[in-house]
Design brief:
37% of the residues are buried. Helices cover 11% and strands 43% of the residues. It has helices at 5-15, 80-83, 241-249, 302-314; strands spanning 25-30, 47-54, 58-69, 72-77, 95-96, 99-105, 111-118, 124-129, 134-141, 168-170, 172-176, 179-180, 184-187, 191-196, 201-210, 216-225, 228-235, 258-259, 264-270, 277-287, 290-293, 321-327.
Length: 330
Amino acid sequence: MKPDQPVQKRISRLLRMYNRDLPGFVLALLMTACGGGGDKAGLDLEGKYCSTLSNETSTLAAPVTVNHQGDQVTVTFDLSDQTGSTEGFVFRGLTNNETFRATTRDPSGEEVNLELVFDTNGGFTGTMDSTSRQLEIVASPGSCHDYVNPAGDPQCILPYVERSTVIGGQQYNSVYQDRRHSGLDFQFPDGVQAIHAPCAGVVVAFHRNVTENGDTVFEVQLLFNERWRYFIGFEPNSTDPYINAAQAELLAVELNQIVRSGDFLGYLLIPNTVYPVIHWQIDEIVTEGERQDVIPCKYLSTVEQDRLTADFDNIGLSPACYDIPVEVNP
């Protein structure tokens, strides 16, 4: 029998946009509405969407494309903005009215279950579950952003504007208690400290990480271009849920927001704790999906390098960046 018209229209809204060959999180979906069969010419449609993938600790933006050829529908969740990886998952299954369910295995062999529900607004919601990941999916028609990746390496400034406000920190490549430091830390006086984007970019993810000490770190991840990512970690260094809730409220940017170097990202809440800081780290995609932190000092202008040197000289932390790992004793 032929698919009923309301179901066809819902699928049409899902697939209506344009085709683009994106790398990433590939879901190849074999879709047959109401049991399939009959003439499928009306389902030969395509679409582009922006999805948000989230759980209790992370919120990610993922562009989605949908391509249709005959009964075969390919849905691509592009996660390269976060990882630089083009590796993906492939799901195949059948729709049941507006619901799609499928199971596959990821590259490590772990089973992954997917469920999508198409809504009347032309988007879809769903879940992706496995032993190691449980993600909620919400997608709507259109692009996530219109950020144009600049060519070359990032050109950055320091993530704070006020001078002589740094009262502590940790150098890049310093080694303390057998741990190499992968970025630059900046500590400020009690209260709040305005934090600004050191480099241009687009916000592609938020992460809420809990350290082994129970402290919560709020990471704002930004994409500069296909080769470069960076993040600012807001670290009030507290286990107090009220302080951490307040820090979350002090972040001023949203997912998919485009920022210029110097734009306001939010405030660091500085309670009376041992080491409240921000952590700034620049990562280069060196191979497929693999990041490597780099020396942030090298991506500052000469004026900003001089400013950083002066600020770290004032607190007895010179140089601010070591070329090779060096043991330190703060």
